[in-house]
What we know:
This protein is an alpha/beta fold. It has helices at about 15-25, 35-45, 60-65, 80-90, 105-120, 130-140, 150-160, 180-210, 215-225, 230-240, 250-255, 265-275, 280-295, 295-300, 315-350, 355-365, 375-385, 395-420, 425-435, 440-455, and strands at about 5-10, 30-35, 55, 70-75, 100, 125-130, 140-145, 455-460, 465-470, 475-480. α9 (about 215-225) runs antiparallel to α10 (about 230-240).
Amino acid sequence: MSGTAQIGVTGLAVMGRNLARNFARNGFQVAVHNRTTSKTDALVEEFGNEGSFVAARTPQEFVAALERPRRVFIMVKAGDPTDAVIQEFAPLLEEGDVVIDGGNAHFEDTRRRERQLRGRGIHFVGVGISGGEEGALHGPSIMPGGSAQSYESLGPMLERIAAKAKDGTPCTTHIGPDGAGHFVKMVHNGIEYADMQLIAEAYDLLRQVAGYSPERIAETFRRWNTGRLDSYLIEITAEVLAHTDAVTGKPFVDIVQDRAEQKGTGRWTVQIALDLGVPVSGIAEAVFARSLSGHTDLREAAKDLSGPTAAPLDEAPAAAFADRVEQALYASKIVSYTQGFHQIRMGSETYDWNIDLGAVAGIWRAGCIIRAAFLDRIRAAYDARPELLSLLSDERFAQEIGAAQDDWRAVVAEAARQGVPTPGFAAALAYYDGLRADRLPAALTQGQRDFFGAHTYRRADRPGSFHTLWGGDRSEVEAG
């Protein structure tokens, strides 16, 4: 082989195959390889007319087909399979070559792999890819992390295959060093969990309280999608709710088991947020809601617990309630994005990544699952004030959430009164109220900690750390 392929993709399951086709469709010669050679042959036979492919049967043939610096895109399962492929290919590579992991890797694994390969002079790039199999083929949102030098080599290719925002900007950018790209993809998925949970709660409220049918709720979501809630998830929600099961003739949503599964990135988001000390309560509640849905034995044991039964409203009150639900959904979505971007900021500071939050919002405007119209405004907010600590500190978002809060509170209260669980809406509202509170009851919590564990506290009226001697005269001593 002559070494003319600009990019190589190893791992030709659906995502890898479609990514290879995307590169080929955009004018790149692509070396393709899979441990099972029949997949390599099938790709070239079926899609060879889409561009220039070089089929490689061995790792040696694959590496030999690539021009220097070699760019090896790994598209296999995260974890041990990725490490195995790296160990197989790394000895065949040379200084300056680039290894790219496009799987859903944990960012700490990416940091470890980057350190290991850096010692051998090989660049390692952890790339978050969002958009599913259709995005991989037609243009995903791409979140690469790694050295600036590696992006000089790889970036122009990623910009070619990435989704394009309405203004034509490619939905990819150099996120930052080592694990920054996979970290941002992790948080993207955490926001996705929260977004989906909030939409599900809105659906449940419209059905249980407003008394709407799935078909009518689909119409409501289509109307919402023409306004400020315009987003991919709102769009597909309407499609799912409007679908009728061909076997039973029932609404599709009624024949699906109410057990939501998860692959792990949402859990990672919450776990890492705890490590960083970042409150992502909306994302956490979304993860726990999926967990609760899966504990069918627990739910079966508790199904006879007492509580109210939702009573559908009459037509006019139902329509007014639906409008309030739209307000609550929008306000809660703002909180979810606020929490996600705060986590990215704190991760960036902790790992010294220097992530541009406006740029992150920009590459989420197309291709990815959480793409939404208001990401343009989020990008503009961070571009105007890179130091912005919270989206809720942006004047326009603050005004909108302030205007929505009465309806938001009414929806959460009505849900509680009628026994409809809304952990996402309620957690988002509690976060909002927690931020705006003049004083939080954490003062009492800290007093309790000092009482039982001498953990000390700080006073509001003077600097220093103090401890109260809780026995006897309860005198206070400065603790250092």
